[in-house]
Amino acid sequence: MWHPSSNLWGYNEIGYGTRIGAFCDIGNVEIGENCKIQCHVSISPGWKIGSNVFIGPGVHFANDKHPDATGVSFVTNGGVVEDDVAIGMGALIGPGVTIGKGAVIGMGAVVLKNVPAGETWVGNPAHLL
């Protein structure tokens, strides 16, 4: 179920029991079951989100390492968020990143590298806690 004021565009696969908060912008992604995506989240095309994932308010997922000024991009280098991940408020997740199963991302973290399963990463740039 999603809130009517969210912008869901393109082709999305959204699993059973997943809740999407208000004012989200989500397009051309796969999202597993029983996820909670809070308000003001932006998920760019190409991302795959596993099941039982928590995404806090204001999290942004990028998909283009080299955007241009025209706003036209043909690169969709989304990443992967595996099952049972928690991502804190305001985190920024870079293109092509994989966040491993059961990992925790602290609020405001800037994740530019892959995060191994079960680890907690915080800071800018994000690093192991």
Features:
30% strand, UDP N-Acetylglucosamine Acyltransferase, domain 1, six-stranded parallel β-sheet, mainly beta, 129 residues
Shape: globular
- The tally of domains stands at 1
Q: Please identify, by name, the CATH architecture.
A: 3 Solenoid
- How many separate helices? 0
Number of strands: 18
Q: Please bin the fraction of helical residues.
A: under 10%
Return Rg in Å: 13 Å
Task: Supply the CATH superfamily name.
Answer: Hexapeptide repeat proteins
> Briefly, what CATH class?
Mainly Beta
**Pattern of helices and strands:** EEEEEEEEEEEEEEEEEE
Proportion of residues in extended strands? 25-35%
Low-confidence stretches: none
Strand order of the largest sheet: 3-6-9-12-15-17-18
Kindly summarize this structure in a few lines.
With 129 residues, this protein is an all-beta fold. The protein has strands spanning 7-9, 13-14, 19-20, 25-27, 30-31, 36-37, 42-43, 48-49, 54-55, 60-61, 80-81, 86-87, 92-93, 98-99, 104-105, 110-111, 120-122, 127-128.
What does this structure look like?
With 129 residues, the protein is mainly beta. The chain has one domain: 3 Solenoid (UDP N-Acetylglucosamine Acyltransferase, domain 1), CATH 2.160.10. It has strands at residues 7-9, 13-14, 19-20, 25-27, 30-31, 36-37, 42-43, 48-49, 54-55, 60-61, 80-81, 86-87, 92-93, 98-99, 104-105, 110-111, 120-122, 127-128. The strands form three sheets. The protein has a seven-stranded mixed β-sheet, with no helix packed on it. It is globular. The mean pLDDT is 91.
